[in-house]
């Protein structure tokens, strides 16, 4: 008589000297599966399963196969229904290796019941992944596999929990007339049927957590995979698997699985463009690949051109497509009885029409015309549905294709409201740092008052920098608020740089000011364009002549308006521009006129800055004592930290060149402290550079390296190419003094490259001589 399979398997395992865990590992089965076979609770293993066990045990498979009892010997009614409902897996599945490995490991765990939630935006391939892994682990669930589309993302109504329970129970062989009409009783019946069985349930397209909860088994041997576009954080005990976009190489792999390789290899650049146009979204890549496979005469570049013209049209079909996938989520929001959902649908269309790279609650609130808290509620709702992607604490962004879809609605956000917000914050910075300027006297006092309280000068500047890309995107619309915004950004530009963007904003504001006949605004913007172009010229990105023309034009505007304060401001800036252009003696004459002009107007603020500028020019032209006298007069007139910091920087540099190192260090350290408090990176960088050179004069090159490295980091944040070159030059000298030649040459070569690019011919030649000497 044939020995029972359970006893024979157990004996063979013990004779092989293996534990159940070891046999499971060798055979690729789960420990629960091996245990169930040896206990006899799993009586009818598949042939492939038996062959895996025989191979792992090193015995012939035939005796084990012969020991399996015949199903025909049992009464039909006694055999439970074993459902096999899993859809077919796609044969061109590629990528997702980490997700597949994690999901497979979870589903083969012996610590059941196992619950996994795969979530993400439409088109990510959540269902495809679930099918792929479910088929791979099917043998680990010998008592059946249930599949159910809950229709949570469908144009028809989602299944109710009772409807879902009926379908699951029918799949397990329960006659329709034996299924309770009460959802709680039906859920209890499902749990009872699955209690001692090892069944895999895949619940696809869940609408929300409430729809899923009644469908969950409690038996230790069962596993459930849920897919949804909604977040499933409320699903207690679930392993969360948020699905992301494909990596570029994964997207290319998917294309190669669908399209003849030779067609892709002849146009590698077009393949990259195609993947980029698909936004690394698996559905989009799959549809593009299918289109190429269906059109063998099309070059890849032809499809790319069509995608550039109309991406969603190309990636859409009669029954399935990217637009269709997105429409389901938005339609459900728009048709929801909940006001929050309806508001989120409107927010999706408005926010998607804005060009900024990402969104915060405050920016979204300005675009939507609601307060920051309401905006955050709507952003979170969209993120819950994976219509927005969280990128950090309180920040969100659109996928490219979702943004294209949002813009099809033709809804416009309140860009003027957002520009007005940035304008108010920019003027708040001016009030916090330089409240007594000519431009502050011109400004509407309500701007700074109406700005949100973001903290001190540093945190307010930090916020503007964080939102800078959104600020530029808003300014490009050229609404009315761009005029004062361009003027108010001067302090932000002096502290943080971003000169090219500042030029663009000032040019747009200038056109608007001229069109509206706003003469004062025109004068400020022409002046500011000149100042920014000085910095650009120093970086090799413009000409000093253009800067002089801009400021000269500003003088004429202010003279026409009889604004003597405006004329005085421009005289100071003209001298600054002439000095930067290499004409220090001409600059002195304008600086002296500026001082006298401000003094006659009794404008102490303008006189302070005019004397700082004149002192620097006296120092550069060899009039050292007169320079120190100007700084002393400026310090007496100073009305705030910004001017005090500038005076201390200039005087500290003068003391250093004159050999009074103690006085130099005192002024420079105080300057650095004030600049740090004001969030002025440009001032900090220059102060640290000066302190580094001061340490070099003392032959303290280790201190010099610390200060200069700090200055270099700040200069690069400020995008100050001229300052970066100077600091790298200094670093190279100290590294040479310390015998670290390889590092020194690296810094000196970088400095020389910048000098050459920015037209500093003499300094580049100085470094050439230094390199030749060593």
Automatic annotation (TrEMBL):
Gene3D superfamilies: lambda repressor-like DNA-binding domains (1.10.260.40), P-loop containing nucleotide triphosphate hydrolases (3.40.50.300), Tetratricopeptide repeat domain (1.25.40.10)
Residues covered by the HTH cro/C1-type domain: 9-64
Organism: Kribbella deserti
TPR repeat boundaries on the chain: 608-641
Keyword Transcription: no
Keyword Coiled coil included in the entry's annotation: yes
Residue ranges the record marks as coiled coil: 661-714
UniProt name for this protein: Tetratricopeptide repeat protein
InterPro entries: Cro/C1-type_HTH, Lambda_DNA-bd_dom_sf, NB-ARC, P-loop_NTPase, TPR-like_helical_dom_sf, TPR_rpt
Sorted UniProt keywords: Coiled coil, TPR repeat
Top-level lineage group: Bacteria
């Amino acid at each position: 008589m044939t020995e029972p399979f359970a006893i024979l398997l157990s004996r063979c395992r013990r004779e092989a000297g293996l534990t159940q865990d070891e046999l499971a590992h060798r055979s690729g089965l789960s420990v629960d599966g091996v245990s169930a076979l040896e206990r006899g609770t799993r009586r009818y293993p598949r042939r492939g399963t038996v062959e895996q066990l025989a191979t792992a045990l090193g015995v012939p498979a035939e005796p084990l196969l012969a020991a399996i009892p015949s199903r025909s010997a049992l009464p039909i009614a006694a055999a439970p229904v074993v459902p096999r409902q899993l859809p077919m897996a796609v044969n061109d599945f590629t990528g997702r290796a980490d997700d597949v490995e994690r999901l497979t490991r979870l589903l083969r765990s012996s610590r059941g019941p196992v619950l996994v939630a795969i979530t993400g935006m439409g088109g990510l391939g959540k269902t495809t992944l679930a099918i792929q892994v479910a088929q791979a682990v099917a043998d680990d669930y010998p008592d059946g596999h249930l599949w159910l589309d809950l229709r949570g993302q469908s144009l028809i109504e989602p299944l109710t929990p009772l409807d879902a329970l009926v379908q699951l129970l029918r799949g397990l062989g329960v006659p329709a007339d034996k299924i309770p009409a009460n959802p709680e009783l039906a859920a209890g019946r499902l749990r009872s049927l699955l209690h001692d069985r090892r069944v895999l349930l895949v619940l696809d397209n869940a609408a929300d957590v409430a729809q899923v909860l009644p469908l969950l088994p409690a038996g230790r041997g069962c596993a459930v995979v849920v897919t949804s576009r909604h977040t499933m954080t409320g699903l207690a005990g679930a392993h969360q698997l948020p699905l992301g976009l494909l990596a570029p190489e994964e997207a290319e792999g998917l294309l190669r699985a669908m399209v003849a390789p030779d067609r892709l290899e002849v146009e590698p650049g077009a393949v990259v463009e195609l993947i980029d146009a698909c936004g690394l979204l698996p559905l989009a890549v799959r549809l593009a690949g299918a289109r190429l496979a269906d059109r063998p005469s099309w070059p890849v570049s032809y499809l790319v051109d069509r995608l550039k013209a109309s991406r969603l049209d190309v990636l859409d079909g009669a029954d399935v497509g990217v637009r269709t996938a997105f429409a389901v989520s938005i339609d459900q929001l728009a048709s929801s009885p909940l006001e929050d959902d309806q508001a989120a649908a409107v927010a999706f269309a408005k926010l998607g029409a804005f060009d900024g790279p990402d969104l915060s609650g405050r920016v979204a609130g300005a675009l939507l015309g609601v307060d920051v808290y309401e905006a955050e509620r709507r952003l979170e709702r969209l993120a819950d549905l994976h219509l927005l992607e969280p990128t950090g604490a309180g920040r969100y962004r659109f996928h490219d294709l979702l943004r294209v879809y949002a813009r099809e609605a033709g809804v416009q956000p309140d860009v003027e409201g957002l520009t007005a917000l940035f304008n108010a914050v920019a003027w708040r910075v001016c009030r916090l740092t330089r409240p007594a300027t000519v431009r502050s006297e011109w400004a509407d006092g309500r701007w700074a008052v109406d700005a949100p309280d973001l903290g001190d000068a540093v945190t307010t500047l930090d916020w503007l920098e964080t939102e800078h890309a959104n600020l530029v995107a808003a300014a490009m619309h050229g609404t009315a608020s761009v005029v004062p915004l361009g003027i108010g950004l001067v302090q932000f530009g002096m502290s943080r740089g971003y000169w090219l963007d500042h030029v663009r904003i000032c040019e747009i504001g200038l056109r608007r000011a001229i069109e509206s006949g706003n003469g004062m605004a025109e004068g400020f913007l022409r002046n500011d364009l000149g100042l920014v172009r000085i910095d650009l010229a120093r970086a090799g990105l413009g000409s000093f002549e253009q800067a002089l023309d801009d400021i000269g034009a500003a003088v004429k505007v202010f003279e026409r308006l009889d604004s003597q304060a405006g004329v005085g401001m421009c005289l100071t800036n003209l001298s600054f521009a002439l000095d930067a252009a290499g004409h220090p003696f001409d600059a002195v004459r304008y600086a002296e006129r500026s001082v006298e002009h401000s003094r006659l107007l009794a404008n102490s603020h303008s006189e302070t800055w005019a004397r700082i500028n004149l002192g620097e020019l006296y120092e550069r032209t060899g009039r050292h004592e007169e320079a120190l006298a100007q700084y002393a007069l400026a310090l007496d007139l100073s009305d705030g930290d910004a001017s005090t910091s500038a005076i201390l920087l200039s005087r500290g540099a003068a003391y250093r060149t004159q050999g009074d190192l103690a006085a130099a260090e005192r002024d420079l350290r105080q300057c650095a402290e004030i600049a740090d408090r004001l969030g002025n990176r440009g001032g900090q960088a220059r102060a640290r550079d000066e302190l580094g050179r001061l340490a070099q004069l003392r032959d303290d090159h280790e201190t010099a390296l610390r200060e200069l490295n700090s200055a270099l980091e700040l200069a690069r944040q400020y995008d100050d190419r001229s300052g970066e070159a100077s600091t790298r030059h200094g670093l190279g000298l100290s590294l040479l003094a310390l015998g670290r030649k390889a590092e020194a040459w690296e810094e000196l070569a970088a400095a020389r490259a910048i000098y050459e690019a920015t037209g500093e011919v003499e300094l580049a030649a100085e470094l050439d001589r230094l390199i030749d000497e060593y």
